[in-house]
């Protein structure tokens, strides 16, 4: 059980979300540390190949969404980095929860301000919440 990995992850994700809300950018430095943490946590995985292939597929899908301006580049990097540390059987649920939380966030912003705004959504919040939960669940099972 490597639940200790969740402590630095929670700190990193908090910093990423804070920065996204303040300046609307996700720090590459913090995302890199999330990526490193996910790689280190892979050492206890018995599904290494599957996780890497699934992470590559998630990256390609979200990279395409970035190319058509649906999602930001920092969001793509964060989703990909977190996916690497999540068990393959939890990845689909992780992505669905991101979508649900993102929709809830958009609804709250729209109800509060009357529009989503020109700046879009600080999408690192739903990514981080979902990622933290499913990353921690993964660590509990190893």
UniProtKB/TrEMBL annotation:
Pfam families: Peptidase_A24. It comes from the Bacteria. InterPro entries: Prepilin_IV_endopep_pep (IPR000045). This is Type IV prepilin peptidase TadV/CpaA. The keyword tRNA-binding does not apply. It comes from Vibrio owensii. The chain crosses the membrane at residues 28-45, 52-71, 91-111. One of its GO terms (cellular component) is membrane. Residues 9-104 form the Prepilin type IV endopeptidase peptidase domain. Keywords: Membrane, Transmembrane, Transmembrane helix. One of its GO terms (molecular function) is aspartic-type endopeptidase activity.
């Amino acid at each position: 059980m490597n639940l200790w990995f969740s402590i630095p992850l929670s700190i990193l994700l908090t910093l990423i979300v804070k920065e996204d809300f303040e300046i609307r950018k996700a720090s590459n430095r913090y995302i890199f540390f999330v990526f490193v943490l996910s790689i280190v946590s892979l050492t206890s995985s018995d599904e290494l190949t599957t996780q890497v292939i699934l992470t590559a597929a998630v990256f390609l899908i979200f990279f395409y969404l970035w190319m058509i301006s649906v999602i930001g580049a920092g969001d793509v990097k964060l989703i990909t980095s977190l996916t690497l540390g999540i068990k393959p059987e939890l990845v689909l649920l992780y992505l669905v929860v991101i979508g649900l939380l993102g929709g809830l966030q958009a609804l709250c912003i729209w109800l509060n301000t009357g529009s989503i705004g020109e700046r879009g959504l600080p999408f690192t919040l739903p990514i981080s919440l979902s990622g933290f939960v499913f990353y921690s669940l993964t660590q509990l099972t190893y």
